[in-house]
Amino acid sequence: MDSLTQIALGSAVGVAVMGRRTAVWKAALWGAVAGTLPDLDTFVDHGNAILNMTRHRAESHSLFYLTLAAPVLAWLAARLHGEAALFKRWWLALWLALVTHPLLDVMTVYGTQLLFPFSDYPFGVGSIFIIDPLYTVPLIAGVAWALRPHSVGGLRWNAAGLALSTLYLAWSVLAQQQAAQAARASLEARGVATSGLLVTPAPFNTLLWRLVATTPTQYFEGHYSLLDGSRRIDWTAHERGAALIAQHGSAPSVARIAAFSHGFYRMSSADGRLFVTDLRMGLEPAYTFNFNLGTPAELAAGTRAPTLDSQRPDLSTALPWLWQRMWGKSPPPA
């Protein structure tokens, strides 16, 4: 999730666990610190664009390493505030603030390596977009109320914010399952046998869902809104670059993206250069993680570091289309 959301979640957890045992601002501040610490790995350069993508949310998001870090952070907080007697409580609060960060990230589609170093499997439920105000605002409101001077019922408001945001996560999973059922029924009616189905929310909401179905040679993209009058889904078919995948799929850069994306990727070529694209984040034809692998010879020899060539959508047309489509309308393609 975005940094603001993680700060708000960490603060809310810190306040909820510490209660009135310490000043509310202390619990909120240290919770915010713990909530944002895991994302500092974005400043680490692993050597090339693909490694930077796939190693994000690895060591710093590991439940094992965060559990080891919690008592150190708790000792620092207790010592700085002269609250040695509260060390165990600080430990619990900051451990929860640390581990809820990757657990929330798991709800997005990106991929979080919770079990590192024992496994590098990237977990991703994909039921919530990386920025969703309906999840974040209750957390911010609850913490803000708890921080008000002489606040009456501030801790209860903070707890209510946590409860509402958690219920929203649960709702996102239920909504995702409904969209997935509609997608499977639509594909079956078309006679499309797929090897994978991706169901993720469109930006900033959990009403409109982006659907990607893959076959060995193609991928199909569609959208489904929970407010659609019928379960009819309009799919568009696109080539995955099967011949390029057969020829270059074993190259380390391609294999890494294939594993990290759980198979939702494509290969393409342009101007003598090869590209590998993660199909999970973006929408046709603009994708966030589109990597330039260089020429076939450079890829085979490993002499060129992959670079990121993000494809940005035209927001002036994409956002109005998404807004109308979210409410069950069928505007012309953006």
Task: Characterise the protein shown here.
The structure is a single chain. The model has no long low-confidence stretch (mean pLDDT 95). The protein contains eleven helices and ten strands. The chain has helices at residues 3-18, 24-36, 49-55, 63-80, 87-105, 133-147, 154-190, 242-248, 252-260, 296-301, 315-326; strands at 196-201, 208-214, 218-225, 236-239, 265-270, 273-278, 282-283, 286-287, 290-294, 307-308. The chain is 48% helix and 14% strand. By secondary structure, it is α+β, with helices and mostly antiparallel strands. The protein has three domains: 3-124, no CATH class; 129-239, no CATH class; 241-334, no CATH class.
Oligomer: single chain
Number of domains: 3
Main sheet attributes: strand count, strand direction, barrel closure: 4 strands, antiparallel
Whole-number average pLDDT? Answer: 95
Strand order of the largest sheet: 1-2-3-4
So what's the overall shape?
globular
- The percentage of residues in β strands lies in 5-15%
Q: If helices are DSSP runs of H or I spanning 4 or more residues, what is the number of helices?
A: 11
The arrangement of helices and strands along the chain is HHHHHHHEEEEHHEEEEEHEH
> Helical proportion?
40-55%
State the low-pLDDT regions, or none. none
Counting DSSP E segments of at least 2 residues, the number of strands comes to 10
Give the C-alpha Rg: 22 Å
Protein structure class: alpha+beta
Distance between the termini: 26 Å
